[in-house]
Amino acid sequence: MMDIGKINRILIGHDNVGLRSGWFLASVQITVPVQGRQYMFPCNRWLDKDEADGRVEVEVYPSEILPIEKLINYEVSVVTGDVRAAGTNAKVFMQIYGETGKTELIILENRSNNFERGATDIFKREAADVGKIYKIRIGHDGTGIGDGWFLESVTLKRLATKAKGSDESTKKKKKSDEKKEEENKEEEGMDVYTFVAHRWLAKDEGDKELVVELVPDGESDLEENTYEVHVLTGTVWGAGTDANVFLSIYGMERGDTGERQLKRSNNLNKFEKGQVDVFTIKAIDLGELKKLRIRHDNSGSRPSWFLERVEIIDLKESTTYYFPCQRWLAVEEDDGQIARELVPVDEAFVKKDSENEGQSPATLGLEQKAKSTTYSVKVKTGDKKNAGTDANVFIILYGSKDDTGIVSLKASKFNKNKFERGKVDEFTVESVDIGDLKKIKIGHDNKGNSTGWFLEWVEIDAPSLGQCLKFPCGRWLDKSEDDGAIERIIFPAELQTIEYIPFVPYEITVYTSDIFGAGTDADVFIVLYGSDGVCTQQKSLCLNKREQRMYFERNSVNQFIVELEDVGDIIEKIRIGHKGGGLNSGWHLDRVTIRRLLPNGKGSETVTFPCERWLAKSEDDGETVRELVPSDIFTEKLMKDGTLKQIEEEVEEPLEVHTYKISVFTGDIYGAGTDANVFLNIYGDMGDMGERKLSKSETNFNKFERGQEDTFTIQAVDLGIIYKIKIRHDNSMFSPDWFLEKVEILDETTEESFVFLCERWLSKKKEDKKIERTLYEQSYNGERNSLDGSSLSVSSQDSNANQKEPKKSSLVKAAEEGSLIPYHITVTTGTEYDSSTDSRVFIIIMGPQKVQTERLWLDLPEGKDEFADGSVEKFSVWGLDVGEIKKVEVGHDGATPESCWMMEELTIVVPTKGVMYNFVCKCWLARDKGDGLTSRILNILDAECVNIGIKILYEVTVVTGDIEGGGTDANIFMTVFGSNGNTEELLLEKNGDRFERGQEDSFIMEIADIAPLRKMRIRTDGKGTRPHWFMERITLKNLTNQEVATFTYGDWLSKLKNATGSLECEMPAVINDEQMMEDTTYTLQVKTSDIGGAGTDANVSLILFGEYGDSGTLPLKESNKSNKFERNQMDEFSFSEMLSLGDLCKVRIWHDNKGIAPGWHLEYIDVMDSAMDKTFRFQCDRWLAKGEDDGQLIRELACANNDILELKERTAYEIVTVTSDREDADTKENIWIILEGKMGRSKEFLMENSSKKRRFERGATDTFQFSSKNVGDIAAICVGHCPKDGKKSSAKADVFWHVQEITVTEMELCNKYYFRCNAKIPLRYKRRDYKVFECAKVTESFASKARSLVPVKYETIVVTGFEKGAGTDANVFITIYGLNGDSGRRALRQKFRNLFERGKTNRFYLETLDMGELKKVKIEHDNSGLAPGWLVERVEITNSATGVTTIFPCGKWLDENRGDGLICRDLFPRY
What we know:
Blueprint: E1 10-13, E2 23-32, E3 37-47, E4 57-60, E5 64-67, E6 71-80, E7 92-98, E8 101-102, E9 106-108, E10 120-128, E11 133-140, E12 149-159, H1 169-172, H2 177-188, E13 191-201, E14 211-214, E15 224-233, E16 245-251, E17 260-261, E18 276-284, E19 289-296, E20 305-314, E21 319-329, E22 339-342, H3 347-355, H4 365-371, E23 373-381, E24 393-399, E25 407-408, E26 424-431, E27 437-444, E28 453-462, E29 467-477, E30 487-490, E31 498-499, E32 503-512, E33 524-529, E34 539-540, H5 545-550, E35 557-565, E36 573-578, E37 587-597, E38 603-615, E39 625-628, E40 632-638, E41 644-650, E42 657-666, E43 678-684, E44 687-688, E45 692-693, E46 709-717, E47 722-729, E48 738-747, E49 752-762, E50 772-776, H6 810-817, E51 820-829, E52 841-846, E53 856-858, E54 872-880, E55 887-892, E56 901-910, E57 915-925, E58 935-939, E59 944-947, E60 951-960, E61 972-978, E62 981-982, E63 986-988, E64 1000-1008, E65 1013-1020, E66 1029-1038, E67 1044-1053, E68 1064-1068, E69 1070-1071, E70 1074-1075, E71 1079-1088, E72 1100-1106, E73 1109-1110, E74 1114-1115, ...
Antiparallel strand pairs: 1-4, 2-3, 3-5, 6-10, 6-12, 7-8, 7-9, 7-11, 11-14, 12-13, 15-18, 15-20, 16-17, 16-19, 19-22, 20-21, 23-26, 23-28, 24-25, 24-27, 27-30, 28-29, 29-31, 32-35, 32-37, 33-34, 33-36, 36-39, 37-38, 38-40, 40-41, 42-46, 42-48, 43-44, 43-45, 43-47, 47-50, 48-49, 51-54, 51-56, ...
């Protein structure tokens, strides 16, 4: 087919002939190897006259274009000789080698009868472009009758890329014309190579070889070489094999020999124990040898083979290469591999082996391991019916330099029966230097009973490269399913690649002592420690039970090569132990040696760790774990002259072994004791001691009983300064619940003691249901939460050398710099079939230009493993502040056809910008649904944008008192009050271990912009297993301007332990040692009216509102009269120890309607503030009664004092200008300004510059005052720049004034208007040229706010949704928030009406003082009644005074069993 360049779209259809011609087309995939592209065209629609739109053909656009390996066309002509019986029926294959690499094996067959005597066969094949060709290998497999073949010659045409018609042609025009001519030449002439063989490829003719390597005619510099291969089989019992062995030799520059079977040996019976077999291999000269691959096919009766080494003599150069192996090639032995790649080592190392036969078996496994890469291959079979297979599975790993060849996956580490439904099998594949993994080929031979196989994914982990790749498949390898392929090429999924710090190989030799009963069959593990507590993971030395039985016998020496994390240059200590179990698990360990290579590969270093002790429960001290320190180091270096230099030295000042006395105190409360097994791990700045079981208590026979102290002694290598412990129990036995009071640890060697307070339950039933706790030393003030991860990974070990200075968490640092900000993301999954996904979902938030966050992963919390149908998941992530959000990319890492996800809705809240974006997407993110994309970019213009009010980030530090029982698990709520309003009640998250005795807990919270802060109210709900809390203090640090406010309490919040039984407290802010509020006593005088039935016996409460927030609820209980609130009576109440709220503006007063005739007619309230010595009058003159007036029991009263402020016609304005701090910002000329307000426009104010008093200098702030008529609220300002002398000529064109910002203050009420300008104002003579700036922010003064407080009726309409079950019988409450305060929580009730029924609209009237512009509504229900779930469509609120209606859309359920399970929602207005 002609090359049409890049495919833009396809047309596909059918002719609609025949019965049932309708066709549902899912997708089309087109692979164009010559372009190196694979196109995916998703269709997912009917092509049918009777379905959908009735079309039978459709144009489809590609959803993705994947780069694949680029191939070019080769034409191969094979001439068979004209000799008797020259033809063959065997399978012929060929491989091409060029300057840039080699092709894969090319099979030459097209029609049935190829390669007949005297014939020429032509084949066209696509293969990789290998550049200039220097050799080919051609051969056959010797099958069939008359397989001998006389090959005359091979001609190879390399069809180079055409210039015409390719998609590059448009781009080429820009290049010079010479290139063009070259291109055209190339098209006519192609590279032709001729290879003359003229020889037999037959078992019984010539040199009996079936494979030959040929060089092109006329290339004289390459010639054939002969390699003599010596294969030494080991002397281990059962070392020999009867399988067929294959060998491939690789050169440094010039390719490889390909795989050759080792057939003709000098011995009749090949590969027997202790035998040397010699073979010759002819190949084009490979240059210096790099590696070899040797494998067997596992055939015959005893295929297991122990290979000692391979020696290869290059006869042309007469040099010998040594390839040591000393390992099994066997499915049952070692790591189960039957193929090994070996690298050559220096002769000195090999000879050293043969000299000291008598001593320890010094081996070269470590050198081999260091040069090779070990891949751990995990294969997941799908969880589908008949997914498993019994066929033989193979894999080939393709790297950028080479491939591994066919590797049979025989020995699974976990399962005896491999590749069964839903199982994961793990295999080991070793190879030498194949470069970066590009792709894999995996398949099976279709043999056996149930051969069809559904492969989910392959995961390949290479610890020595620090890379783990995931190859998703999600398809059948089955002749009768899918496309019938039984082998697939799979590329890695980029998003699922994990990178980590590469591992290094260690050779660990374990010497078991020569005493009776020294051996063990237990599972032995080891951990290595470097300096500063860096340690490896815990690694079992045996892979399976069989090895456990074989190794660690009395007087044996066992060697293991393991890849572990790099712990640095020095191994400070090791921990070795076993898990016990089984018969005679006791073990007497003599010593352990660890050898590793020197950095440059020129030798190695061996460290010896003596032990000479029992690891047994019944011997010595009963410990099965020991920590060992090094005694001496033995180094071997390879010198320049090829000799080995050996140095032995003792370790200077190894760490000492310390004895730790551990005292565990169980609490003295009911049911505190436990019978479960308790485990402890101690962490110091020099590492940890590993988890140890606390088995033998020295003080009590029955451990961990109520109120008792148990002491244990543990020996461990010096841990340095101990800063944390992990303690847990295994929840076994009859009553495992345990209340742990504290743990004390005494280091007997240094006599330092450390105290770890707990005072918490370790129980699956109580408190937070955890049976493991991490406790920190009392005086420790480093970072705590980052250490949650497992103690085993290198990174989690914080080395806290500087423990005195508290560490800042990285998050706080980033938040202070303002680079990272929080994003709150809510994802709703659709409810259609197959909507859910278990892939990882990510989001990328993009700003202007190319600013974007990194890929933010939305990882589900523990216990959830998928985005389930209809679920609502919430995430908080920290990402780069991208400025104004322009686009959002959302997607998942699923790459198989199975992993589809329906995203219903996406909400992004950006608290620091005060906006919420809501995308209603309803789109598939799936390979095989919709348009085939697994990630898509959403434009912010398609989102609904809601203003939710800017939040400021604060670092909150909560200090709990160091008093017995001071910690709590009650819920703690905080409200913060500032001069510019207050926050709602915010829950302080417990988060596992905050608010415990003696702790300082820091975390970041988002708090409304209300600074300067005035006071804080803290309330606990008094629930939980430990409801009492001793709160010392709380500090808030504003992360934008670093201002710190401290709130100190120093008392209990508890019904029992607090003198007044209070669960609530108020604390004034202390900023820079100044208390922000005064202490005062409020005296309230309440006057009941002189009307019939005015008195009440109900309980009355009120809240005072003032400049600095509210007083909280004050119950009017203790009056100076015995019978309160009687007709025409004045009652006096006194509240001492209050914080003065400054000028008061309103009172909210209500009663609970209890008692006989509870209706109450209130005349007025007077409030006296002793600190201010001022009285505030609140006039009421209305009923608070169900049956009178409007039936409200709650009233808001405005302060009568504020009416005195009459607004005057004229006022004064203060104008402050800030000139930018940059070059050329200043001006010597004058500036003029006009204010535009709601009540009119001001005259022009001229801000003059004089030579005496320079204004508008760079970075300067200048203040001006003007008197004027009052223009009301200022909406905008006009700013102009004019010459001082008023002459037209002096208005130069290029003079500017660069203004940063302008602030205007109206002096009567002190309202401030901010204008963020950041603009250049050009110098102009005419007054027509000016810039207009809109008002960016207003701070309304308290006096101004108080003036606008007049009673207003709000009409509230609640619309219930129309879905089934939308209505509710629960009690509904509403809180309305406006600029000037909120309405309080109001119940929405009406007498004898069934409210909130499906599809209905309910109307309520609430009277409050004017709240100004409405900002949000909180709607909630109490979840009572039969079916409390409620679907709220929307809430509409109309201010009857202004007639303005604000609509608050909701459209969500308030139902504990649906979606996000909330029964309380914040609704924001839609304008």
